[in-house]
Design brief:
Blueprint (H helix, E strand, L loop, with lengths): L7 H5 L2 H7 L4 E5 L4 E3 L7 E5 L3 E7 L5 E7 L4 E2 L1 H5 L7 E6 L1 E7 H10 L1 H27 L2 H16 L2 E2 L3 H8 L3 H13 L3 E4 L2 E4 L2 H7 L3 H13 L1
Antiparallel strand pairs: 1-8, 2-7, 3-6, 3-8, 4-5, 4-7, 9-11, 10-11
Helix pairs in contact: 4-5, 5-10, 6-9, 7-8
Length: 230
């Protein structure tokens, strides 16, 4: 199923702090489209992903949804609202299946109060995630569809590898654009030898070219993470 240290945040903890957490963690398999949290629902569990991608969505009144944040093995979901007895402000689903270490929200809150190092790590990640959301908002406002598509592909590659179980419908929904627009861009990227695409699976063939065509936002997000944690 996986090991708790497959999550990069848990792996950053000192040995003593990690040992305090282990009895309260369990590993679960998370399936594609599985709902992690509903908008305005109380947080019951906190998820430390080992793999896969947790997607935070803003759901619109017309039924559409736009992705505002992506969480993988480098992060966690739920600690911020759990620490403050608050609710989820997003609809949160598994975009790519994987495993995660989970902990009851109440237990996490108690452990964070008892262990300043653990609490600091959680808050550092919340700071990074806010930066990611802000960067995504700016990106959606000013960058073209091709550069945004390449950015998302690079972010997903970093979290799950070269093979991405990703439909064009889902990618279009995440970026708030028409499916035909994503289909056209995917065709262009495939013709350029950057990706291969068959129904439900994208494989990145040329990372260097993908980086060249991506907007600066992926590099900016990576630099935020490095500044906070390294």
């Amino acid at each position: 199923m996986g090991d708790h240290l497959d999550n990069q945040l848990l792996a950053r903890l000192d040995r003593a702090s990690f040992a305090e957490l282990v009895p309260h963690l369990s590993v679960v398999q998370l399936h594609v489209h599985q709902v992690i949290a509903e908008t305005h629902a109380h947080i019951q569990k906190v998820y430390f992903a080992h793999g896969g991608i947790i997607s935070c969505l803003v759901v619109l009144s017309n039924g559409g949804a736009i992705e505002t944040g992506m969480i993988g093995k480098d992060g966690q979901y739920g600690a911020g609202p759990a620490l403050d007895h608050k609710v989820s402000l997003n609809h949160v689903v598994m975009q790519v299946p994987g495993t995660a270490s989970i902990m009851d929200a109440d237990r996490l809150r108690d452990l964070a109060q008892e262990n300043p190092k653990f609490r600091q790590m959680l808050m550092h990640y919340e700071q990074f995630f806010l930066a990611q959301v802000q960067q995504t908002a700016a990106c959606n406002a000013v960058h073209d569809i091709e550069s945004r598509t390449c950015k998302w592909l690079l972010r997903m590659q970093k979290l799950v590898g070269d093979e991405l179980p990703l439909t064009q419908d889902f990618l279009a929904q995440m970026m708030g654009v028409r499916r035909t627009s994503v289909s056209e861009i995917a065709g262009q990227l495939q013709k350029a030898g950057m990706i291969s695409y068959r129904r439900g699976l994208v494989r990145i063939l040329d990372s260097a070219k993908t980086k060249e065509r991506a907007c600066e936002c992926d590099a900016t997000i990576n630099s935020h993470y490095a500044r906070i944690f390294e």
